[in-house]
Amino acid sequence: MWPLYAAGFTTAFGAHGIAANLGGFSEDAVTSLLVLGGLLALYDGAEVLLKPVFGSLADRIGGKPVLLGGLVAFAAASALYAIADSPGWLWAARLGQGAAASAFSPSASALVARLNPAAKHGRAFGSYGFYKAIGYTLGPLLGGVLVWAGGLRLLFTVMALCGALVACWAALAVPAVPPLPRKRQTVADLARRLADRSFLGPTAALAAATAALSVGVGFLPVSGAAAGLGTVATGAAVSVLAATAAFVQPKAGRALDAGRLTTRGGLLTGLAVTAAGLAAATLPGLTGVLLAAALIGVGTGLITPLGFAALAASTPEERIGQTMGSAELGRELGDAGGPLVVAAVATLATLTYGYAALAVLIGAGTLLAVAGSRRTAGSSVASE
Fold it and tell me: 27: which of 181, 260, 319, 340 lies 20 to 30 Å off by Cα?
């Protein structure tokens, strides 16, 4: 399992470590906000398009080959800019990194499910999410230190070494998990499975959690600066969010496996806490920023391992890669959609109203889920 945790850390560290430092330390390549936005969107766009494809490929040929291929490709794409060091190659490197992460991220999730019995899925996905959250937390900080010490090329060099080392580790330590026999699946069969509540419920919760997390990381520093807080205080607030999410995920997973927490109850509670965190962001000053960071961290920490465990429990084992890839697509849409909603409302009114709008959307979704579960007594939002 450890190489899989390392792969989760790598994708998170690479995404946030480079994204957080593109604008401030690469003036030759990032000449405008439009160029910066394009470079950031290139990585995420590749993931949106390719994660379901590579998830299905993992089902067809096995998760380990796709995992290894993605890690090797990530190392190669990172080395491309480290060696070439030109603005044009930076675009190619970011596109290659996004495509490579699209391969090894869903295959790692699928292997987490395949290598653990259903009774331990909560703990397994909680640990996997913990190390991804550590990557998200340390990425901007360590990335900034590396760029300060040796420029953007040094950061890409470290990313290349990280991808190569994890690939070697996974090749030696992760057992080969052969693909399972699969019944023929038509497009209609896939559409029915992805439209089922057992898929839509957890995926919608994961998308909402990712939307709130992205908004917290991106906009809470803006609120802090508007309240007169310094960069240290606002940076600490974002660290509180990521660290809280990392701390909660393993505990939520263990509680699920032990029967102390149900999937439906945990997801609904996580959504409610996340909405409360966004509402708290409307409060002025340091109190609102820290309270929002802590609550969003707790909410997303609850949702992430429970959502993936629910998807693994409700999916035929031979289709687990396809499901994880499709669920990752939902998360990417939330990652992009949350900030867009907040930014659009903030442009028309203020950032306070932007937070409130997303809080209302997530809160309304939670209430609808509760109402639906009461109408169908005995059913749940996700398979338990």
Answer: 340
CA distance 114 to 72: 22
User: CA-to-CA distance for 113 and 374, rounded, in angstroms?
Assistant: 30
d(CA 342, CA 354): 4
Helix, strand and coil in the chain, % to nearest 5: 85, 0, 15
Comparing 106-110, 255-259, 369-373, which segment has the lowest mean pLDDT?
A: 369-373
Residues 310 and 343: beta-carbon distance below 8 Å: no
CB within 8 A of 148, min separation 6: which ones? Answer: 25
Give the pLDDT of residue 79.
92
Contacts of 379 (CB under 8 A, 6+ apart): 197, 373
Q: Phi, psi (5° rounding) for residue 279?
A: -65, -40
Q: Model pTM?
A: 0.74
Question: Confidence class of residue 162 from pLDDT cuts 50, 70 and 90?
Answer: very high
pLDDT digits (tens, 9 = 90+) for 18-75: 766 665 555 555 556 566 666 766 777 777 788 888 888 888 888 899 999 999 999 9
**Residue among 93, 3, 9, 109 at smallest CA distance from 46:** 93
Q: Which long-range contacts (CB under 8 A, 24 or more apart) does 274-277 make?
A: 274/208, 274/209, 274/212, 274/299, 274/300, 274/303, 274/362, 275/299, 275/359, 275/360, 275/362, 275/363, 275/366, 276/359, 277/212, 277/216
**Angle of CA points 133, 331, 104, to nearest 5°:** 65
Helix residue spans in 227-262 (DSSP H):
231-257
User: What secondary structure letter does DSSP report for 377?
Assistant: T
pLDDT band, residue 308 (cuts 50/70/90): confident
Per the listing, tokens 């109190």 go with 287
If one counts every other C-beta atom within 10 angstroms of the C-beta of residue 378, the result is: 5
